[in-house]
Amino acid sequence: MAQDEFDVVVMGMGPGGEDVAERLAEAGLSVAGVEAELVGGECPYWGCIPSKMMVRASDLLAEGRRIPGIAGDSTISPDWSWVARRIRDEATDDWNDKKAADRFTGKGGHLVRGWGRITAPGEVTVGDRVLKARRGIVIGTGSQPSLPPIEGLAGTPYWTNRQAMEADTLPASLVVVGGGAIGCEIAQVFARFGVRVTVLEAAGRLVAIEEPEACDLLAGVFAADDIEVRLNARVERVSHDGQGFTVHLGDGERALGERLLIATGRRSDLVALGVGAVGLDESARTIATDGRMRAAEGVWAIGDVTGRGAFTHMSMYQADIVVRDLLGEHVFEAEYHAVPRVTFTDPEIGAVGLTEAQARERGLPVRTASTPIPASARGWIHKAGNHGFIKLVASEDVLVGATSAGPAGGEVLSMLTLAVHDRVTIDRLRQMIYAYPTFHRAVHEAVKQL
Ligand SMILES: Cc1cc2nc3c(=O)[nH]c(=O)nc-3n(C[C@H](O)[C@H](O)[C@H](O)COP(=O)(O)OP(=O)(O)OC[C@H]3O[C@@H](n4cnc5c(N)ncnc54)[C@H](O)[C@@H]3O)c2cc1C
Ligand SMILES: NC(=O)c1ccc[n+]([C@@H]2O[C@H](COP(=O)([O-])OP(=O)(O)OC[C@H]3O[C@@H](n4cnc5c(N)ncnc54)[C@H](O)[C@@H]3O)[C@@H](O)[C@H]2O)c1
Fold it and tell me: How would you classify residue 18: left for phi > 0, otherwise alpha for psi between -120 and 50, otherwise beta?
């Protein structure tokens, strides 16, 4: 077996692994980046970037349809080929990672293509190559779709996010199993391009991890988009007859679709990574780390595999900590009290920190306040497409969580993230000047209620 020695071996070149590998190589360390598929990971090829290109297109359609009553008439003719072309040419380079690979090797990194497995402390094996890591191994191997145990599913041509992002043409109808972030974003995009969409969600709410008000909001918007939503759905069996899918539900009902998208969460396979070789529990769902992202002696973990929120910004936040730790620089320890997340539906559902229910579960003395966006000056001016609300969750004299749902809800979230992150007091938020007439001014109204 060929054996190579490096300072650091990075397993998985997703957003986090790529950042670690590039920055360490730039700093002069010898770095091997091991990648089984495409350098860049899920986000640029099948995740954030192509999905947000879809969202941008579908938001434009929605805005165009809002012209009557405000700015004249409009006739909207959606054409998916523009979206598919943009994703192919601009987002993914036809699912080719040459640019990203060259960027890494151009910085002195050593790219090893193939599946990496930890075979001993300080050792990663890729095919017939053994990579020795003098200083450490960084695990940034991300996640894969988690498939529910539905009878008949395995033998059918169902979609995951991958096929949805690669779709050149749209089906006439789509059944989406899972009403979380992926399911909701894709359901709305496809519906606005004319696809008949049914969402089947096992929980009693859409985007179930967020405030119940967010679900109510999306349920109303989805109804207006002609999306059929079935909550508390029990998907029992799936069949495909060569033309389309029949999804059999526990209540005897059925849902029919030309395509079926499974969007029921994501998982990491720790057995396949061989983490038992460094003393980690392979039966766990995720890799636990300390504040410096250290998982074991000489092993760091970042991104989806750590289970701290499957977001690109989380992966890159943790990557920064690892780079500093490995370079012997000042390290701030990871904090998770102000994790922001945005579901890019229209309206966007932005949230940070704890929901009201989570705060109560922790036994915190909780006060909440909420204001509707349509009642704000900007919401009233906006007139159409102005659904949303601000909800604040306070404990003692600070915010511990907040939701910003509405037009640009993800952008409005930034000030709330800062407030939760830095524990700005409600008094100080009350005293702040909020520009008029902005969507974020609705935050002031909610703060005043507190
Ligand atoms: C449809 C969709 C939309 C999304 N939208 C957003 C969004 O808007 N905003 C946001 O913040 N997040 C979004 N996400 C989540 C985001 O894509 C992930 O959180 C992020 O990509 C995780 O980064 P990561 O560094 O953990 O690794 P990943 O991006 O998962 O990459 C891991 C890489 O490791 C490789 N790998 C795995 N195991 C091995 C191995 N043993 N050896 C070698 N290589 C290996 C994989 O091939 C992969 O390339 C979205 C995800 C999806 C699916
Ligand atoms: N905008 C963003 O930041 C963004 C967008 C997409 C994805 N993501 C990340 O990717 C992760 C995965 O997204 P996701 O939507 O697959 O997962 P998710 O965990 O957000 O939602 C999955 C949903 O599927 C439901 N479900 C599970 N099993 C089911 C079944 N058998 N039948 C019906 N419903 C079922 C769950 O109740 C849940 O509501 C997210 O957690 C998120 O972190 C982020």
Answer: alpha
